[in-house]
Specification:
489 residues, alpha/beta, single chain, 38% helix, 15 helices, six-stranded mixed beta sheet, binds NADP nicotinamide-adenine-dinucleotide phosphate
């Protein structure tokens, strides 16, 4: 019997096909949930609208809403280990990583609890006999559509600011990872968020995602996922004149100058591409190394990559678990074959792991893979692989580097490794990336806005302003005239 889902305040079976969650480390079944269909979307949206109009939510003071979000944060923290294990089983990430993701989700709710309580309306300079204000109202029922790679964190990144803003939210998790989103729904309910304000509708993106985006009463879509789906959503949103935020794909450059601290750069590059098995939008998948240190740096990188521990996600020492599914691994293997066909040389990896440490046969494992000898315009170098595959390319000087690094449709992130802070400052401005890390990589603060340039997306999440994308700004003018307006006399 499939587990129920959260539709407009009620836990009940969806009307769509069941969804199965598989543990990618060994192919065992984690559970089956009842998928939603378009009729469930209609019901959740209608109940979300009704819940938003109910004074219990509509008239709730911002500090009270903030208090509820703090409660969600506390409940996530209390269930930290359980959620981390659930997330691990849903997508195969190592337990150390999923613990960090759950902590991040708790921090996100705590942060937006504080934001809800402290955001202010504005009194604007008046130009006549009135007091003018800019105030913010919830935009309406919003849809949050999320991918499978870090569900607990990306769900929280949408749910928390939308609830802080006073919206109702319909969360659609990725088909392969429905479990954590449903638990977040339970936690929101337990924390006292009124029924109907949060719905969680697992189901195929082509049905549920599509029904949400095109629904006339969905006022905004916050989407994280691939660029092609994002582009489609942007087109559909244009028809409705609906705002969307799109957090999309990447092919981010990491750059190592000859003056970098080599041991820091080696560790940073490896972490940047191979943590999360490369299933990360910000993976540093194109590595540019200054020509003078290319051989030395490559040798150090390959040696350390070969020592990475791949295997059981539940083992505290594991650095790389399986890929999310066999189908996803098939896609990565096609890209590795393409890289070889394009003339690239595989320096390490390029195969499934073998050995006695773990039963790799049952899971969708793949070795960390490093390519050399490909030009920047090779397809393997340009297209997002979303897996543990790195391409190394040489560069000569800053202008050559900028030309190559920016020669991509994406603009999500960049890592710079250099001890010359003036150069880092210059390049951080010249490289097309929404986030630039200097002598570090994949560091995040919920207080710092995040998003992409070019085909990596539009809009920003996180930060205090993150609440504003779920609100409409409204102008109020309070007349202070002592006498009637003269024009009509
Ligand atoms: P995806 O295929 O684009 O799916 C993302 C979400 O969209 C899933 O929930 C999916 O549902 C849904 N969806 C699919 N078709 C849809 C449609 N026609 N209308 C509305 N929704 C639809 O991406 P993914 O494979 O899950 O995730 C990997 C991608 O996400 C990569 O490109 C990665 O770079 C990107 N990503 C970006 C960020 C960022 O912050 N920039 C962060 C993480 C990941 P189904 O699963 O049911 O198909």
């Amino acid at each position: 019997m499939a587990d129920p889902i959260l539709i407009g305040g009620e836990w009940k079976p969806g009307r769509g096909p069941d969804m199965v969650s598989i543990y990618p480390a060994d192919g065992s079944e984690n559970g089956v949930v009842a998928g939603a269909d378009a009729a469930d979307v209609d019901e959740a949206v209608a109940k979300g609208r009704a819940a938003m109009a109910d004074p219990a939510w509509r008239d709730m003071k911002p500090h009270e809403r903030g208090g509820l979000l703090m409660g969600v944060s506390r409940l996530i923290s209390e269930r930290h280990e359980e959620l981390a294990r659930l997330q691990m089983r849903d997508n195969g990430k190592p337990i150390g990583e999923t613990r960090a993701l759950v902590a991040s989700a708790a921090g996100t709710f705590r942060y937006y609890g504080a934001v809800a309580e402290t955001m202010e309306d504005e009194i604007t300079p008046s130009r006549g006999p009135y007091v003018s204000m800019s105030i913010y109202d919830p935009i309406g029922v919003v849809a949050a559509i999320t991918p499978w790679n870090s569900p607990v964190a990306s769900d929280a990144q949408k749910l928390a600011p939308a609830l802080a803003a006073g919206c109702a939210v319909i969360l659609k998790p990725a088909g392969v990872t429905p479990l954590v989103a449903l638990e977040l729904g339970r936690i929101c309910e337990a924390a006292g968020i009124p029924p109907g304000i949060v719905s969680v509708l697992p189901g195929p993106g082509s049905v549920i995602g599509d029904a949400l985006v095109t629904h006339p009463d969905i006022a905004r879509v916050a989407f994280t996922g691939g660029t092609e789906v994002g582009r489609r959503i942007a087109r559909q949103a244009a028809d409705k004149l609906m705002p969307v935020s799109l957090e999309l794909g990447g092919k981010s450059p990491t750059v190592v100058f000859a003056d970098a601290k080599i041991d820091h750069a080696v560790n940073g590059v490896i972490f940047g591409i191979f943590s999360s098995s490369g299933e990360s939008c910000i993976a540093g998948s194109r590595l540019f190394v200054q020509r003078g240190i290319l051989d030395e740096f490559t040798a150090a990188l390959v040696a350390k990559t070969e020592a990475l521990r791949i295997g059981d996600p539940a083992d505290e020492r594991t650095q790389m678990g399986p890929l999310v599914s066999m189908a996803h691994r098939d896609g990565i293997e096609r890209y590795v074959a393409l890289g070889r066909a394009e003339g690239g040389e595989v320096l390490t990896g390029g195969a499934r792991p073998e050995g006695s440490g773990f039963d790799y046969e049952k899971g969708s494992f793949y070795r960390p893979t490093i390519f050399a000898g490909l030009p920047n315009d090779a397809r393997m170098v340009q297209e997002e692989i979303f897996g543990p595959v790195l391409a190394i390319l040489p560069f000569d000087d800053e202008d050559d580097l900028v030309a190559q690094a920016n020669d991509t449709v994406f603009g999500l992130a960049c890592g710079l490794w250099t001890e010359d802070y003036r150069r880092a400052w210059r390049l951080a401005r010249r490289i097309d990336a929404g986030t630039v890390w200097i002598n570090t990589y994949k560091m995040f603060s919920i207080a710092t806005p995040f998003g992409g340039l070019k085909e990596s997306g539009t809009g920003r999440e996180k930060g205090r302003q993150g609440i504003r994308q779920y609100q409409e700004q409204k102008a109020l003018y309070w007349g202070t005239n002592e006498t009637p307006i003269g024009w009509a006399d």
